[in-house]
Write a structure and sequence with these properties.
alpha+beta; 2 domains; 18% helix; Nucleoside Triphosphate Pyrophosphohydrolase; three-stranded antiparallel beta sheet; four-stranded mixed beta sheet; 3 helices
Amino acid sequence: MSPELSDRPEQWPVVESRDIHRGQWVVALRSDRIRRPDQPDGETFERIVLEHPGAVVVLAVDEEERAVCLSQYRHAAARRFVELPAGVIDTDEEPLEVGRRELREEAGLEAAEWTHLLSAYSSPGYSAEVIHYYLARGLDEVDRGDFVLAHEEADMHVFRVPYADLLAGVLSGAVGDAPVALAVLAARARGLVRE
């Protein structure tokens, strides 16, 4: 593979950084003034950064090749989306453990087999959020434990659809959540699901 076909770490000088919003919610917003490294006395420019701890998305597929989906309202987009079980990584949590937790809390399931599909930056133009994608198989129903569905999650609907139908929904644009598309297409590309 060509060396150019690989992302690499790089940090441009930050001249000034200030918080725009930092509260109790999972994300924060800051303004950084940066400068190109090859122009130490050159112009600075502003970049707004959304801080996010990262997340995990789980494509859970049962023995009948049905995907476990959620129907959930998302206020920012003013839309109800078809989604997959997912959640934010808390401090010092491993992504796989987050996947196990979210599958249990959101869908009332546990899985015997876990396959890491990929990890990808959601939108690196303004955030360093990385989402880790897993395929989960060998599903069994379990109790959600002490987790209580609240806010939008209290209105969430869990359902199963044939994987082939979910793939068709992604390809037609009927299912527009990017994490769903990435998980579904990655599983297909790796030959881990049957259509």
